[in-house]
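Late entry, written up from scratch paper. The run itself happened at the end of the previous shift, but nothing got recorded in the book at the time, so transcribing now.
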Amino acid sequence: MGSICPRGRGPGAALGPLLGAALALLVALPAVAAPPGLRLVVIDPGHGGTNLGAPSRVHHPVRYEKEFTLKVARKVAARLREAGVTVVMTRERDRDMSLKARISLANRLRADAFVSIHLNATEVPGPTGHETFFLALEATDEAAKRLATFENRDPVAVEGDATAPVPDDAVGDILLDLTRERAHHDAQRLAELIQRRLTPQSPFKNRGVKQAPFFVLMGAAMPAVVTEIGFINHRAEGRYITSEKGMSAIAEGIAEGILDYGRLVNAPRSRPASPPTPGDP
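Output as recorded:
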């Protein structure tokens, strides 16, 4: 006669706690599947190295835009990676990088989107608010024109072609033009989605989606935008957008806008077409 296992101590009983722990661990693990349509995103912390960007009026000694664009970019990248998106940053530290080299990197990687992060400023403090730009040869208004002129100053000479490799054949040229035309249209949608998500994250003015001739966006073969998260030289807004709380909130808005773009714009394009219904002509 075989031995009788005490109640609750049979061979399967020992697996109970282990199985429960394993199931609990699986439930606790975050989802890591990338949203459809977002394979890789390039995040560009504006300025860096000898290109200081705008000075802050709320810090002593003075601190510059380049420091805070990097901090916000890191937070955006972390949120996107948490959602399963591959992210490449144009710079991971305080270093020089030309405007051409930034978009050239995104082109070489065939990124799904390129987002350049900046902090705004004016000669005379006063304006507040966040705004997001896509490329156009003519600026939306004089303020956008002045901003683009400031951001287009490139004090470093780093070699880099802002265009993707152009095929020698005429068909290749046409395909590249079509790619860039669609990317330009998509950039407006990306800007709108980022701006919509930024608005509830900031207590300051929503300045809307605008157009301007930013060099860092020229030659992009993917949707590319510049987001100006607020005015660093306004005492109240400058304090907010350079605080940990403010930077985290702003980064969340930017990241969620990018994820919205993946879900609403790119994902539908990647879905296979539905098979025809029997009897359809």
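The chain has seven helices and six strands.
(Scratch paper discarded after transcription.)
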